[in-house]
Design goal:
mainly alpha; membrane; transmembrane helix; Receptor-associated Protein; transmembrane; cell membrane; T2SS_GspF_dom
């Protein structure tokens, strides 16, 4: 590495460090609201020793030392990527026990791993081929940002996978519930039997709904909450149908059988739509790969004969 390149790299690192220090000093400015908050907020009624710990890692001392920087990095991720509201909503839809702060910590960890991988690759390429510094730094930055975005996309994929499982489980769940109700059991007893006898994502939501009903929440309201937690139209119709049947005294077994039939028709329609999309996707390699190769093999002998004759 030449002397000029070494000086440019040192100047870049020094300028970056100075910019980070100035940005940190500006972000640490205490506002009037922050100064008055300790005197205006309500004092806790119990001892702080009984308060729930907010630590998220097995290294409490290191977490307290790095907490300010981690919070700033989390705010930067919120500006660049998904908002906190979107993250909390998708965590609920995914049925994940991870909190918003824990998800941001995981996102920062993925970003750090991407940064380490990008640095390792950049050092390897720089030492082997002597590439320019600016493309290497750009690649390292893209590696860190890409890893953080990948964790966000993984959460979205988990939500979609869970919703697909619920759609697939809904017809069987509705029919089993209709059989239990038709045999003479009440709605709550049938839901409890279903929760004990089956396993799945929809069964977990039904079990949670029953837990809310045991705690004093009306069953109709608990079913409405289940529909809001799943965000699946078929499950929302199922929960609304059961709630309306319980409220108005309609025959619950007939409602559940109709719900199961609707769910199967919806699954069949979605399967046909997916098959149509896959059929169009299969035409791409046929048209752009197989067909040109076939045409080339067909006309190549004729071209070869023409060249020999000429």
């Amino acid at each position: 590495m030449s002397t000029a390149l070494t000086g440019a790299l040192a100047g870049l690192l020094g300028g970056t460090g100075l910019a980070l220090v100035l940005w940190r000093l500006g972000s640490r400015r205490v506002t009037l609201a922050q100064r008055l908050a300790p005197y205006l907020r309500e004092r806790p009624r119990t001892s702080r020793l009984l308060a729930e710990s907010q630590l998220h890692t097995p290294f409490p001392t290191l977490e307290r030392l790095l907490a300010p920087g981690l919070h700033d990095a989390a705010r930067l991720l919120e500006r660049l990527g998904s908002s906190s509201v979107s993250i909390r909503r998708r965590l609920v839809l995914a049925g994940s026990p991870v909190t918003h702060d824990q998800f941001r910590m995981e996102q920062l960890l993925w970003g750090a791993l991407g940064l380490a991988g990008g640095l390792l690759l950049a050092l390897t390429v720089g030492l082997v081929r002597g590439a320019a510094v600016v493309p290497l730094l750009l690649g390292v930055t893209l590696s860190a940002v890409g890893a953080a975005v990948a964790r966000d996309q993984l959460l979205t994929w988990q939500v979609r996978r869970r919703q697909d499982r619920m759609r697939a489980e809904l017809p069987d769940v509705a029919e089993l519930l209709a059989l239990a109700v038709g045999a003479g059991e009440g709605a709550v007893a049938a839901l409890e039997r279903l929760a004990r006898a089956t396993r799945g994502e929809l069964t977990r939501e039904i079990d949670r709904t029953l837990a809310e009903a045991r705690s004093g929440v009306p069953l109709g309201q608990a079913l409405e909450r289940m529909a809001g937690r799943t965000d699946v139209p078929a499950v929302a119709r199922f929960a609304d149908g059961v709630a309306v049947a319980l409220e108005r005294g309609s025959p619950l077994a007939e409602v559940l059988r109709a719900q199961a039939q609707d769910a199967r028709e919806t699954s069949r329609r979605e399967l046909m739509e997916t098959g149509g999309k896959k059929e169009l996707a299969m035409m791409v390699p046929v048209v752009f790969l197989v067909l040109p190769v076939t045409v080339l093999f067909a006309i190549f002998p004729g071209l070869a004969v023409l060249e020999v004759g000429l």
